[in-house]
Design a protein that fits this description.
The protein is 71% helix and 0% strand. The chain is an all-alpha fold. It has one domain. It is globular.
Length: 328
């Protein structure tokens, strides 16, 4: 890919996600009789669009850079940009924010590092589908680690989303044997699930700005330190990986800030069902890049949307009736 092609790819990426956000905003404002979304949930939907559009760019960047270096540069850039914006707030940094940010940053390092490693050998669509397996993993980890079983409709939403993901992955299925890239991506899904739970654990006890800076810089530092351990060297200069790393650095900063802010209100289970739309957007952006979205994948997308809606519904509690007779 030439410098101009890489620049055009990033330009299409940002123009398209802005257009998608505008259309999504208009849809949410219209009266269509569906459950309303809070502003925190709308924010998570928007960053899911961001998230789903990154697979194609990373897949192309892996032709010019190793995964550890790319993730390191991406998140160091994101951390520095966030620090410059919120440098005054950093004066109040607490031990809990350092500890929480480091823990979340380590899961980020594992999640994005393994995912990026997998993108060296599997397609962006495969990566998006497999990564989205963190949807059913989150409530299981939440139950096992935190002892908080999800509500009934949250389980229904997760079940619908998982079924949709299986349909989306159907065109790529057909063999029980998994390649190293697919195994790495499955492990990245577990790490991303842990990240979401940790964010929910610390969200109401920390400043979103400060912990975001810590986790972004921690992720970048772990990635760069891992380079000699995995035998990776600094790649030759290329405008493709430079533009992709810096552009996605901005996206990463926005995504992590939004997740830390929104998950103060939105539960981890609800958040993961919203995040389940990621492979749908990944498929849309893949289609814009020339990938064909088969009918089975469209059906899977419908199941995921149904999962998001189902997660918004909660059984109505029966009205209490006052059977007592009023005294004379």
């Amino acid at each position: 890919m030439s410098k101009n092609v890489g620049a055009r790819l990033l330009t299409v990426h940002y123009i398209t996600h802005i257009a998608m956000c505008i259309m999504l905003h208009a849809w949410l404002k219209s009266k269509i009789g569906l459950p309303s979304f809070t502003r925190h949930e709308v924010a998570l939907i928007v960053i899911t669009i961001f998230w789903g559009s990154t697979f194609l760019i990373v897949h192309q960047a892996m032709k010019y850079s190793g995964p550890a270096f790319f993730v390191g540069v991406r998140f160091i850039a994101a951390g520095l940009m966030t620090f410059l914006v919120f440098h005054k707030a950093m004066r109040g940094l607490t031990k809990k924010e350092i500890w929480g940010g480091t823990a979340i940053g380590f899961t980020l390092f594992l999640g994005y590092g393994l995912q990026t490693h997998g993108l060296q050998t599997i397609t962006s669509s495969q990566s998006a589908f497999i990564t989205a397996l963190y949807v059913p993993i989150v409530p299981l980890l939440q139950w096992i680690v935190l002892g908080r079983p999800p509500r009934l409709m949250s389980w229904v939403g997760v079940g619908l989303a998982f079924a949709g993901l299986m349909l989306l992955a159907g065109p790529e299925a057909g063999s029980l044997a998994m390649s190293p890239g697919e195994i790495a991506t499955v492990l990245s899904a577990v790490a991303i699930a842990a990240e979401i739970i940790l964010i929910g654990r610390f969200a109401n006890e920390v400043d979103s700005r400060r912990i975001t800076v810590v986790q972004l810089l921690t992720c970048g530092a772990f990635s760069l330190l891992a380079m000699p351990l995995v035998g990776e060297k600094i790649p030759d200069f290329s405008w493709v990986w430079v533009a992709a790393a810096l552009g996605l650095g901005v996206a990463s900063a926005i995504i992590q800030l939004t997740m830390n802010w929104a998950q103060k209100v939105v539960s981890p289970t609800r958040a993961t069902v919203i995040y389940a739309g990621e492979p749908v957007w990944g498929g849309i952006f893949g289609r814009l890049a020339g990938d064909r979205l088969p009918a089975l994948a469209l059906l899977g997308a419908a199941f995921i949307v149904a999962g998001v809606i189902a997660s918004e519904l909660q059984p109505k509690k029966p009205m209490k009736q006052d059977n007592e007779t009023a005294p004379d």
